[in-house]
Amino acid sequence: MTVPILNASGCLDALVAPDVARSLDVFVTKTITPEPRRGNPPVRIAETNHGMLNSIGLQGPGIDTFVAEHLPRLAELGTTLWVSVGGFSAEDFRRCCDELEGDERVAAIELNLSCPNVEEAPETAAELVAAARATTSKTLYAKLSPAQWDVAAAARAVVDAGADGLSLVNTIRGLALDPATMTPRLGLHVGGYSGPALKPVALACVHACAAAVDVPIVGMGGVWSGLDALELVAAGASAVALGTVLFADPFAPTRVRAELGAEVAARRHAIPSTALKTPLSR
Amino acid sequence: MACGYGACYGCVVELDGAYRRLCIEGPVLRAVA
To answer: Of A95, A192, A201, A265, which residue is the least packed, with the fewest Cβ within 10 Å?
Structure first.
């Protein structure tokens, strides 16, 4: 059993840490938007007991600068490349996908439909996927939020709209208070909660979606060890992404891959055979 | 600061209307460019 290891979008910059990116099976970019974005005002990070909050707000160069300046350097890494795209309307998703269409350096596009730190598009997730699908023939992964009552229904909707796979899950909105002042620690008060506390949430979402749709799932949320990764696979993921752990342990991809192999070997035939039932790219 | 090597954009400070990463563009920055 081989389980591809990816990074969660926004948790690794391959241009400043190329060796970490090369230790992954797939590198996923930070979410790119059509126009450059300053991002959210500081404070942007707050550590909590069992995870962390972030409020970055999709700071980035915009799709034109990304394609002209970043993409050529990312392609030189030799790692399979997925580009995460986001925006505030179906037109934003269409424009980003259009810029990447036909570019052989990009193996797949992840649609960030669920950033908790920016305003949502007026369209539904399915409508955003449909806009992307109409624009590109590339493999499309839809990244969903765990903050919905029926994530399986959302999964069905985005797959019906043309998503080839799911990325589960994004961070979930949270709040941390300064113990002295009892005021929010983040500049915009709330942020995306990630880290070990997110794992049971991610497992529940992967479990629900794997039963609802027949597409590959990249599981992520609080993965710290090979056992965490194996749990996501057992719940229905065919690949696993590392997020917050990369901030604490840049060697996590190699470590988690080795630990996962040992966990699988220790269990042999007791493992569900869901892994890699569908290739990650078309 | 989450990553400390320029990946997360968590440690930015605003200078001249732009956000600079303290971890790789700092830790000491000119207050005025």
So the answer is: A265
The verdict on A12 touching B (C-beta cutoff 8 Å) is: yes
Q: Which residue has the tokens 């795209």?
A: A85
Model confidence pLDDT, tens digit, residues A74-114:
999 999 999 999 999 999 999 999 999 999 999 999 999 98
- Look at residue B14 and give its three-state secondary structure: strand
What b/e readout covers A5-19, taking b as 16+ CB neighbours within 10 angstroms? Answer: bbbbbbbbbbbebbe
How confident is the model over A177-194, as pLDDT tens digits?
A: 999 999 999 999 999 999
B24 vs A contacts (CB less than 8 Å): 16
A32 at interface of B, judged by CB pairs closer than 8 A: no
Residue A170: pLDDT over 60: yes
| Lowest mean pLDDT segment, chosen from A42-56, A59-73, A103-117, B13-27 | B13-27
**Cβ contacts (< 8 Å) between A12 and chain B: which residues?**
7
* Predicted pLDDT at A169: 97
ipTM field: 0.90
The four Cα atoms B8, A112, A280, A282 give a dihedral, to 10 degrees, of: -130
DSSP A133-155: HTT--SEEEEE--S-STTHHHHH
Chain A residue with minimum CA distance to B21: A42
Q: Indicate the residue of A10, A16, A41 with minimum beta-carbon distance to B6.
A: A16
CB A211 within 8 A of CB A236: yes
Residues in chain B with CB shorter than 8 Å from the CB of A39 are 9, 12, 19
Please state the pTM of the whole predicted model. Answer: 0.94
CB A237 within 8 A of CB A206: yes
Which among B11, B31, B27, B26 is positioned nearest to A56, based on CA atoms? Answer: B11
Q: Which residues of A are catalytic?
A: 115
For position A80, what pLDDT does the model report?
97
